[in-house]
Amino acid sequence: MAPSPLRFCLDYLSPYAYLAWLRMPALAARHGRTLEPVPVLLAGLLNAVGSVGPAEIPAKRIYVFKQTFRIAHEQGAPFTLPPSHPFNPLLSLRVTAAVDDVEARTKLVTALYSAAWGEGRGIETPEQVGAVLDAAGFDAKALLARAATQEVKDRVRKNTDEALAQGTFGVPSVLVDGEMFWGVDSLGHLERYLEGRDPLTPEALARWQHLPSTASRR
């Protein structure tokens, strides 16, 4: 039986997901895993779990830029701010969900991420997204039309619901073998898990899950 794929839950809004995505193809190849990009709506995840995005907290919004800028420098990755942030990623997510072939979808994710965070271009409007599609060799007119269908809109919603059901609460999140790894800083933990060197034991996890709470924030 072939090993299960690395399902990479993404939203183009997140610079952390961009930086993690740049590392994912090589990571997947090292462990003989297929990489499967899964477009989800971060706002939907946050609403479902009663949380807010980093950009919605002024001090954290500034820190996100500082941290992702430094991570990009460490990775040697191009990093340019998009025209606005937060921006509306929905059209780009739907266009991505409209591509059935995983290899082609992977190519498109790289193109859209590179446009937004590598080149600082907008990826919100049909014109902006269409330009990225054309440059990447896709049929922009056909994909934009498909992205407007109820089937594809429902697909993004279904992806988001399924990610929630598997414990996902933000992006980037990698789902594999019933486990979830969240954040660009979890990729090292993911590698150790794939190598069979995960230090976390079922006993330790069970103790945490059943640990009582004696205080709450009101």
TrEMBL record:
Q: Which CDD domains match?
A: DsbA_HCCA_Iso
The record's section on Pfam families has: DSBA
Database matches in SUPFAM superfamilies: Thioredoxin-like
GO biological process terms on file:
glutathione metabolic process; naphthalene catabolic process
The parts of the chain that form a coiled coil are: none
Tree of life domain: Bacteria
GO molecular-function term, one example from the UniProt record: glutathione peroxidase activity
Keyword Isomerase attached: yes
Which keywords label this protein?
Answer: Isomerase
What is catalyzed by this enzyme? 2-hydroxychromene-2-carboxylate = (3E)-4-(2-hydroxyphenyl)-2-oxobut-3-enoate
Q: Where is the DSBA-like thioredoxin domain?
A: 9-194
Q: What InterPro entries does the record tag this protein with?
A: DSBA-like_thioredoxin_dom (IPR001853), GST_Kappa/NadH (IPR051924), HCCAis_GSTk (IPR014440), NahD-like (IPR044087), Thioredoxin-like_sf (IPR036249)
Q: What is its EC number?
A: 5.99.1.4
Instruction: Look up keyword Isomerase and say if it applies.
Output: yes
Task: Name the residues annotated as catalytic in the UniProt entry.
Answer: 14 (nucleophile)
Family listed = Belongs to the GST superfamily. NadH family.
- The protein depicted here goes by the name 2-hydroxychromene-2-carboxylate isomerase
Organism in which the protein naturally occurs: Corallococcus terminator
